[in-house]
Amino acid sequence: MSDETKIIQKAALGSDTTQIGEQNNYYGMTAEEASNLAIKLFMDNFPRLQEEAKKIAKERAEELCKNIVDKLKKQGKTNFSEFSDPDIQYILNKSHQEYARFGTQTLHDLLSDLIVNRINYDNDYYMKILLDEAVEIVKSVVVKHFCNTYG
Prior knowledge:
Layout: H1 31-74, H2 86-102, H3 105-120, H4 125-137
C-alpha cells in the first residue's frame, strides 16, 4: 500500500459497514455513443430516405390531382382557370402535404371532395373559409364525423 491511501473504518459493536472505493457499472452504450450512432444512422440513410419520400410524395400528389380533375370533369367542368388562383393553389398545396404525409384512401377521398367543393364554391366567401378550414383539419377527424358519405 505504498501509493494507495490507507482507509480506516470503525463501527460500533453489532453494526455492519460496507465500503466501496470506486464502482463503475457500464451497461451498453454511453449517451455520446448513442448520439453518434443516431446521427450516423441518419446521415447514412437521409439521402436515400429523402429520395424515397420525395418519390412517394410526388406519386400521391399526382394521384390526388388526377382524382380532383376527374371529379370536376364528371361534373361537366371544362375550364380549370381556378387552379391559377393563389388561394386555390394554397389549399391544393395543403391537401398535397397532408395526403403525402398520411396517404390513406379515406384521406385521399375526403381531400379530393373538399377541393372539388372548394372550386365549386369559389364565389361563396363563407363556404371558401369553411372548406379551407376543413382541409386543414381533415386529417384529425375520423370518418364517422362526416355524415354517412364515407361510412
